[in-house]
TrEMBL record:
SUPFAM superfamilies: PLP-binding barrel. This is D-serine deaminase-like pyridoxal phosphate-dependent protein. Keywords: Lyase. Residues 249-356 form the D-serine dehydratase-like domain. Transmembrane segments: none annotated. GO terms for molecular function: D-serine ammonia-lyase activity.
Length: 366
């Protein structure tokens, strides 16, 4: 049975072929630069996608929460890293995970480090998260006092093992000069490595943003990369120059429920609860909540004339339709929407339908 015959309501489609190409390209890039690829699975959140990743030599993953780490435990990963400043209220859960799974966390202050040092029952690795310009979280790159207080607090315990420094250069999402951002990242991590490598000879450095990891070719002496969104990509990444539209591996299938040819508008069942409300701004100032594609038996096709989702509410979406789309579509048809932010769309939907008809798991759907 065609995957199209299974769709009666908003459904997130996943093209395995495109996803695998994205995984392979990033794995080959990492290998070319002598880097270990530890992808951030906050995007896919899927055991099945994880099995695909293993076929390209990926052995470790990053997640964004204890809950997500629990989901991926027992799947054969050599290590699962939780890339979020550790929440001390979840120390018991961390102990439960560490019984049977190699796991690491991120630390940014002495208080949480002391709590873990006192309460851990099993070995846990940790990275010190560094802020070198993004401004969201992390220890300031020049705050050696804080860095060393975390290291000292960890040494009290034989269970808390320092792994290295983690830096998420998230400002590549809004800074136009990505080369300058990455020069800052390379310099920060190299300085820290040179400063502490004698005391910690196994120290590693990791960075992990999709825009930078996709376009940069000079990683200096960085050891590991951990991008996430590259697995699926999305219209935001297209807008940033990280990929092309045909690299996007997911599309939201939406039923057409009304057509207003005089207004050049198409009403679809698909809104904020499906796509999230991430948005791009068109040149004329209008909003774009997703790009329309034509669904075919073997995937989707990018039309020559653009149509896009110009507004959404909770369940509704209104498409600004091209003449070509209006000439082809009828009520009851199904269109595809390439999401602005695939991570959020996947999280909203909680499952995938492969274009081969396969049901594909997602952590939020279990």
């Amino acid at each position: 049975m065609s995957y199209l015959d299974q769709i009666t309501s908003p459904t997130l489609l996943l093209d395995e072929r495109i996803c695998r190409i994205n995984l392979q390209k990033m794995a080959e890039k990492a290998k070319r630069h002598g880097l270990n690829l530890v992808p951030h699975f906050k995007t896919a959140q899927s055991h099945i996608v994880g099995e695909w990743a293993k076929e390209y030599g990926i052995k470790e993953i990053t997640v964004s929460s204890i809950k997500m780490a629990e989901y991926f435990c027992g799947q054969g990963w050599e290590n699962i890293h939780i890339a979020f400043p550790f929440n001390p209220l979840e120390t018991k859960k961390l102990n439960d995970l560490a019984k049977n799974q190699s796991i690491s966390v991120q630390l940014i202050n002495e208080e949480v480090t002391k709590k873990l040092a006192a309460e851990l029952e099993f070995p846990v690795g940790f990275f010190i998260e560094i802020d070198a310009g993004y401004g969201r979280t992390g220890v300031e790159v020049s705050d050696f006092g804080m860095i060393e207080s975390i290291m000292r607090a960890a040494k009290v315990s034989g269970k808390l093992k320092f792994k290295g420094f983690y830096l998420h250069a998230g400002h590549t999402y809004y800074e136009p000069d990505k080369n300058a951002v990455y020069e800052q990242t390379r310099a920060a991590l190299s300085m820290l490595k040179n400063k502490y490598i004698t005391e910690y000879p196994q120290l590693i450095t990791r960075t992990g943003d999709t825009p930078g990891c996709s376009v940069m070719e000079d990683f200096g002496d960085i050891d590991e990369i951990g991008p996430g969104n590259f697995v699926f990509f999305d219209m935001m990444q297209v807008n940033l120059g990280s990929c092309k539209m045909d690299d996007i591996a997911v599309a939201l299938a939406v039923p057409v429920v009304d057509i207003k040819k005089d207004k050049k508008e198409i009403l679809v069942h698909g809104g904020g609860v499906h796509l999230s409300k991430d948005v791009l701004t068109e040149l004329d100032g209008s909003k774009n909540f997703g790009e329309v594609v034509y669904l075919k038996e073997n995937g989707w096709e990018i039309p020559l004339q653009r149509s896009y989702l110009k507004s959404i509410s909770q369940e509704h979406g209104i498409i600004k339709a091209s003449d070509d789309l209006l000439s082809k579509v009828k009520i009851g048809d199904i269109l595809g929407i390439l999401p602005i932010h695939s991570c959020m769309t996947a999280d909203c939907m909680g499952s995938y339908l492969g274009i081969n008809g396969q049901q594909i798991d997602h952590a939020e759907g279990d």
